[in-house]
């Protein structure tokens, strides 16, 4: 394990941390858990399906002009949410490629968060959406970045007792979702004080741009019917804007948690390609963070490209300690 972590107290003492915290204001969502709106409420979202019967996991499906089909989200509420009257920090948890909004429920998010005072929001991000607005699409809009940042985030804060400030939000993800988390944390600096990448790539131009080529190929095949996330030739400005190793200063004063596997399955080319790129890219990222004096916590773990429950639990512990306490 490599550990160069800032404390929340130290971050608040720095001018950059204070500016980031103040830049988005301090506020809360609704005082009660009122049912979410059934029609477009100003965020461009219309609920077309919902289930609020589970005591913790609430489900919604939306129509939105940003996505050409109706994406869904699971919102996991903390134990005691309905009786506490408290406002809670929020984790936006992003799934990997060929996964969807229910993946983390299948993996064990309910058990991982039991007793932790945290709302967890798990949205669809497309099978190969790459948490981006694609350069080209042949199937209508697939603007995942716009959907998540401009619509879903304010909708959550309007409909749940959720903090709406810098120290009230974290973003984390696995694989493609880890890349999305690193990207969102950098591009929207004042939105998230904590970012985590579980087997998430952190360097997109290395190895002749292997990650960008993979994003283009996978999005063309799985989501965009021949369209691509980054364009052919690449939209270089967009690649730079999304590339963690080119956005170092955007991670200053944040909690950063990185996990990479050291021994992918040699009989599985997919596992080997993914985790080899992840490990090399995270090492490059960490070296640059070291050079810039930016703190982080990093783990290199046995195995390949998968979610490690013990690392998720460690990450959640760190998040809860760094985010604003429920209150």
Question: What can you see in these coordinates?
Answer:
Helices cover 36% and strands 17% of the residues. It has eleven helices and ten strands. The two termini are 32 Å apart.
Give me the secondary-structure topology.
Blueprint: E1 2-4, H1 8-13, H2 15-23, E2 46-51, E3 57-63, E4 72-76, H3 81-84, E5 90-94, H4 103-107, H5 109-113, E6 119-123, H6 144-159, E7 169-174, H7 176-187, E8 194-198, H8 206-222, H9 236-242, E9 255-261, H10 269-292, E10 296-301, H11 309-322
Parallel strand pairs: 5-6, 5-7, 7-8, 8-9, 9-10
Antiparallel strand pairs: 1-10, 2-3, 3-4, 4-6
EC number: 2.3.1.122, 2.3.1.20
Organism: Catenulispora subtropica
Signal peptide: 1-38
In short, what is this structure?
The protein is α/β, with parallel strands linked by helices and 327 residues long. Helices cover 36% and strands 17% of the residues. Belongs to the mycobacterial A85 antigen family.
